[in-house]
Structure formats: C-alpha cells, structure tokens
Amino acid sequence: MWALLLSTTLLMTPQAATPQTPQAKPEAPKAAPAPAPAPAPAPRDENLPPGEEQAKAALEKSSRHGEWVDVKLPSGGTPIRAWVVYPERKDKAGVVIVIHEIFGLSDWIRGVADQLAREGFIAIAPDLISGLGPDGGGTDSVPSRDDVTKLVRALTPEDATARLNAVRDYAVKLPAANGKSATIGFCWGGGKSFSYAAAQPALNAAVVYYGTSPEPAELARIKAPVLGNYGGDDARVNATVGPAETEMKKLGKTYEPHIYEGAGHGFLRQQDGRDGANLKATQQAWPRTVAFLRKNLK
C-alpha cells in the first residue's frame, strides 16, 4: 500500500521543466564599408589656362576687366558678339584674337582669353556664328552642340576671314592696344588661325592648337611666323603637319610645329585626360605659346 501511495504522489507532482538552451541570435548583416571619398581635385595651376571643368570658376575669380562688345561688320547685318579681356599693365599691349573650336564660343574659350590677359595681352574672343543662330543669335541661342557644329562648319572661308578682319580692325584700334595682332585657335579654330595668316598680311603671329594646315597655295601667302602645338595621338591632324613644315621651309617662312607624345586632340581643354599626357602637353605648350606671342607682339 505504501508503494501504491508513493507512486500516486509521484504521478501528481509537477515535473520540473527541462531548461531550454537559449538560441543564438542571428548576426545582423554587416554594413558594406562606406566608399572611400573621391580624392579632391588638384588645385589649378594659375600659370596655365583652366581646363574645361575649371573655366567658369576661373572667370568668376578673375580680377581682370572683361566685357562683351558688339563688333560691326562692314557689310552690315548682325554685329559679332565678342568677349574682350584687358591686362593689368600701364603700357599698351598686343592683341590676341582667340578663335573658338567647332563648338562655338564657350566659357572655356573665354577662360583662355582671360589667361592671355593675365600674361599681358588684350585678348578678344569672337563668336563667329553671331547672327546665324535662331532669331539672329549666336552660340548661346543654339539648342545643341551638334547644331552649333553645323553652323560653324557652314561658315565659308570668305565669311570667316571677313569676320576675323572686322574683329582685328576693332581690336587694334582700342586705345590700350599697341597696333600689333596675333591669332590663336583650337581645333577648327586652329586651322582658321593658320589660314588667316595667309589671308591677313598685317598679322604679326599665329598660333595653332591641333588644327589642320592650309594647302601649299595658301602657305605661300603667309608672312607671319606660325607656332603649332599638336597631340601625339591625333593622326588626322598630324598628317597635315609634315607637308606644311616641308613647304614652309622651302618658302623660307617660319613654322615651328611641336608634337606632344601621348596627348590627344583637344589636350588644352581636356587637361585631365590621357593619363596625364594632356596635362604634360599643356605644361609644355602654354609657356611656349606665351613666349612666342611676347616675342612677336612687343
């Protein structure tokens, strides 16, 4: 009987709960590491023209006097809108006409003009498609870069020369000008700088940046010395350099071409391109350009 009572008691006594092993909480997914901050752009070398992405800021920072002017064409019609920048100097200065790329007058071209003024020249950058855009506008009025290119390409050599002549006549008569003039051009404008030297016998110097060379018949009419700056990786343009150099030597004229290894077309505008080759070309070409202009415009 005692055995029976003991069994009943055991059955009626609550059993202690079996302790549960605590489940490990799943680890929260690790956050991806934050991307490293982009390196700060190198400070601009103010002894060089700005690159395209630096041009607007450089213009806003400049202490030099720049202004928009309207240059009348002898034939009448819409004047040529041009950006003029003056150097800070007490004596008169030579004039440099800055001929834009096939992309028209841009902040970058105006930035180059400002840099030329820093070097002591009066720089004037005309919009050569003034009056040819919608409602008689210029580069600013055209809706796309492709449309600007079409208008620039449509300029005949005669039109381009007439417009450059009007700009030159205006600029050399400025009270602060010393009467001497030069051109500097880029891409399409580089070719125009070279060919304008053949069309304008009073020009004192011409600088070509990666622009094609004129035909031999034009070269024969050139009186001004010509400096050329070319990217090494620009076969389309460079194919015209050797023949022009040979012909200019034969004619006893001054043509000084320089080809910068590894640099591409448009290196002065795209200074951050080509793994440093464009910047290196700029660092060599620009001081050479300034020295050439000083020599011929003093």
Which keywords apply here?
298 residues; alpha/beta; Rossmann fold
What does this protein look like?
The chain has about 300 residues and is of the alpha/beta class. It has a single domain (about 65-295), classed as Alpha/Beta hydrolase fold, catalytic domain (Rossmann fold). It has helices spanning about 1-10, 55-60, 105-120, 145-155, 155-170, 190-200, 215-220, 235-240, 240-250, 275-295, and strands at about 65-70, 80-85, 95-100, 120-125, 175-185, 205-210, 225-235, 255-265. The chain has an eight-stranded mixed sheet with strand order 1-2-4-3-5-6-7-8, sandwiched between helices. Helix 6 (about 190-200) links the parallel strand 5 (about 175-185) and strand 6. Helix 2 (about 55-60) packs across helix 3. The longest helix has 21 residues, at about 275-295. The chain starts with a helix and ends with a helix. Mean pLDDT is about 90; it is low at about 1-20.
**Count of helical regions:** 10
Distance from first to last alpha carbon: 134 Å
Mean of all residue-level pLDDT scores: 91
Uncertain segments are 1-19
Query: In the CATH hierarchy, what is the class?
Result: Alpha Beta
Domain module tally: 1
Order of helices and strands: HHEEEHEHHEHEHEHHEH
Q: Could you tell me the number of beta strands? A: 8
Strand line-up of the largest beta sheet: 1-2-4-3-5-6-7-8
CATH superfamily: Alpha/Beta hydrolase fold, catalytic domain
What CATH calls the topology is: Rossmann fold
The biggest sheet, with number of strands, parallel, antiparallel or mixed sense and barrel status, is:
8 strands, mixed
Radius of gyration: 33 Å
Fraction in beta strands? 15-25%
What is the overall shape?
globular
Helices and strands: which structural class? alpha/beta
Helix content: 25-40%
* CATH architecture descriptor name: 3-Layer(aba) Sandwich
